[in-house]
Design brief:
This protein is mainly alpha-helical. The protein has one domain: ABC transporter involved in vitamin B12 uptake, BtuC (Orthogonal Bundle), CATH 1.10.3470. It is built from eleven helices and four strands. Helix 1 packs across helix 9, helix 5 crosses helix 6 and helix 6 crosses helix 8.
């Protein structure tokens, strides 16, 4: 039972991050039917920018929490600007093109961002400064740290805020109307270009926060770190139902829990021959099973292609 509780805590922690990144995928797909492959690299940029700020302020004698807050506050607008530029330069001109063209463009943007980060921060893994003292709290034999509690709490607050934004504000109503039918929404006075750009900006802001949390949790940042994270977050979005916000949240948490439980129990049964070294496999096994038995996802609905 102690192993189950510990792995559940680890899974919810990582799953909260998956959920935040998955929201970026599902928001964009829900509105313009685009799989933004480069979204994971926006997460990486958020982590890298935060690394630079924390490294610059590490010797200033400032409180650790304040330093991390400043670093996150700097990473968010950088990633938002990056998301806006991606939409305006790479995706908007291809909005009416075949979907394959947009997908290839997204892959190209991902490669460009990775190499741009390589030029700035080098190809070597960067040790993310661990300036926040880790404190452990015991639940029986299981342990949860203040960093994990912070990640879960911040993710919950942000996801709640996003849900309120989408379902309780004029911008959210415009986003939902554009997702339903952009031309008709335009006739109702909604600027579809502005709504789509804001969707990219909001998703990029969430990606920045997720990047800081991931880098701080694992203590490392690398220019390719967004590829695997983004792929698993996309699996989470598909698991919950691509284009469905509650589905992305549910899918992220479930995927994190499945990974953690699989790594913990299989690693324990095989004397750690498998387990954590193969935890990435569980994400894609789940994706395959969902695509086979419920292609629309856990909370998704079957819809026809738009005319």
């Amino acid at each position: 039972m102690d192993i189950f509780i510990q792995q559940l805590i680890n899974g919810i922690t990582v799953g909260a991050v998956y959920a935040m990144v998955a929201l970026g995928y599902t928001m964009v797909f829900g509105i313009i039917q685009l799989i933004n492959v480069a979204h994971g690299d926006v997460v990486m940029f958020g982590a890298m920018v935060a690394f630079s700020i924390i490294h610059a302020l590490s010797g200033a004698g400032l409180p650790p929490l304040f330093v991390v807050t400043i670093a996150t506050a700097c990473a968010i607008p950088v990633c938002m600007l990056l998301g806006f530029a991606m939409e305006r330069v790479a995706y908007r001109p291809l909005r009416n093109a075949p979907r394959l063209a947009s997908l290839i463009t997204a892959i190209g943007v991902s490669i460009i961002l990775q190499h741009f980060a390589l030029i700035i921060w080098s190809r070597n893994p960067l040790a993310f400064p661990q300036i926040i003292a880790v404190e452990s709290f015991h639940i029986g034999e299981a342990t949860i740290t203040n960093v994990q509690l912070g990640m879960i709490g911040i993710s919950t607050l942000i996801m709640t805020g996003l849900a309120l934004l989408v379902y309780r504000t004029r911008l959210g109503a415009a986003m939902r109307a554009t997702a339903q039918n952009a031309p008709i929404a335009g006739l109702m006075g909604i600027d579809a270009n502005h709504v789509i750009a804001m969707t990219f900006v909001i998703g990029a802001g969430l990606a920045a926060i997720a990047g800081v949390m991931v880098a701080n949790y694992y203590g490392i940042a690398h220019y390719t770190m967004g590829a695997n994270l983004g792929l698993k977050a996309f699996c989470a979005a598909v698991l919950g139902g691509i284009g469905n916000l509650p589905g992305a949240m549910l899918g992220g948490v479930l995927l994190g829990v499945v990974e953690a439980l699989g790594a913990g129990y299989i690693g324990d049964l095989t004397n750690n021959v498998f387990g954590s070294n193969y935890q990435d496999v569980f994400a894609f096994i789940v994706l395959i099973l969902v695509l086979v038995f419920r292609p629309s996802g856990l909370l998704g609905e079957r819809v026809g292609d738009r005319a």
